């Protein structure tokens, strides 16, 4: 009789246990995310394991595919939303040159290409928090508990620095560089939308991406992946890389426009060294405690 009563109550409790597990599962995953430490295996051993057990490598490829598909889905959703506001964005982007009336299309398909370029840049900027989060979730299992917390807290700052770089290019670089480009040798210039929009969107994107360097230096130093001495010792190589980037970003080879781009990049590298030193000092003080 007691066994039957016990079985009766066990059957009654079973649905509640299942509901409890279903509710607690996300909290358990969150707890594991912040508390579990990854296995500390050398890179050589990890590569050897990937060759010996291809299934483990394919598992990571499958996880990467899921993160990429979610990022692409979010990007497409924001692209559809940004397409609705395309006229307003086109008018905003054309303000540094004097408005849309200063642009003259030549090809039949030129307006479509211009619109898609602006939509993609706006959609990428809007979807950047989700894209960074997906990248972070993919690499998080290989990071230490401390690195996960730092990386998660840094996601909003990544977005702020990217928009800061885009704003710097729009409000400072374009007003200074466009008059030089348009009035060089006093040659009358008929501006095509495709040329202008390609120049503006490329400049804004690259400055947004390069503005991430100081934050990246700080985060990597806090994660014990980078040290300030590496940045200081390799400053000559950094200057060469900055010169190449300035040549790629600027559409002309004149030294004035290259200096307009190089000067902020050099300052960003110096700021990255300072933030890395700050993070290194803070890390050292924490280790002493």
For the terminal residues, how far apart are their CA atoms?
A: 62 Å
Q: Order of SSEs, N→C?
A: HHHHHHHHHHH
The rough form would be described as flat
The largest pleated sheet is described as: none
Structure characterization notes:
By secondary structure, this protein is an all-alpha fold. The chain is built from eleven helices and no strands. Helix 6 (145-182) packs antiparallel against helix 7 (193-210). Residues 41-51 have low confidence and may be disordered.
Keywords, please?
single chain, 289 residues, mainly alpha, 11 helices, 81% helix, 0% strand, flat
Task: Describe the secondary-structure layout.
Elements: H1 2-35, H2 43-52, H3 54-84, H4 86-93, H5 110-139, H6 145-182, H7 193-210, H8 213-222, H9 228-233, H10 235-249, H11 255-288
Helix pairs in contact: 2-3, 3-5, 5-6, 5-7, 6-7, 6-11, 8-11, 10-11
Task: Kindly summarize this structure in a few lines.
The protein has 289 residues and is mainly alpha-helical.
């Amino acid at each position: 009789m007691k066994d039957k009563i016990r079985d009766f109550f066990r059957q009654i409790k079973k649905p509640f246990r299942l509901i409890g597990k279903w509710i607690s599962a996300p909290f358990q995953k969150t707890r594991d995310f912040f508390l579990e430490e990854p296995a500390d295996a050398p890179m050589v051993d990890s590569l050897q394991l990937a060759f010996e057990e291809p299934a483990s490598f394919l598992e990571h490829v499958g996880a990467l595919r899921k993160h990429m598909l979610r990022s692409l889905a979010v990007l497409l959703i924001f692209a559809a939303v940004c397409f609705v506001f395309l006229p307003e964005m086109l008018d905003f982007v054309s303000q540094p040159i004097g408005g849309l009336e200063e642009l003259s299309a030549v090809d039949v398909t030129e307006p479509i290409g211009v619109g898609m370029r602006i939509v993609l840049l706006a959609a990428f900027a809007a979807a950047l928090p989700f894209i960074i989060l997906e990248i972070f979730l993919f690499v998080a299992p290989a990071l230490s508990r401390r690195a996960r917390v730092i990386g998660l807290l840094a996601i909003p700052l990544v977005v702020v620095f990217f928009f800061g770089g885009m704003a710097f290019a729009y409000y400072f670089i374009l007003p200074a560089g466009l008059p030089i480009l348009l009035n060089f040798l006093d040659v009358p210039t008929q501006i095509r939308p495709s040329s202008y929009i390609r120049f503006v969107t490329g400049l804004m994107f690259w400055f947004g991406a390069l503005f991430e360097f100081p934050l990246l230096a700080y985060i990597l130093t806090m994660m014990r992946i980078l040290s300030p001495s590496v940045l200081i010792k390799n400053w000559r190589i950094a200057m060469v890389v900055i010169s190449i980037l300035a040549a790629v970003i600027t559409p002309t080879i004149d030294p004035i426009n290259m200096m307009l781009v190089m000067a902020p990049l050099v300052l960003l590298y110096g700021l990255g060294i300072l933030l890395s030193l700050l993070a290194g000092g803070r890390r050292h003080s924490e280790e002493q405690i």
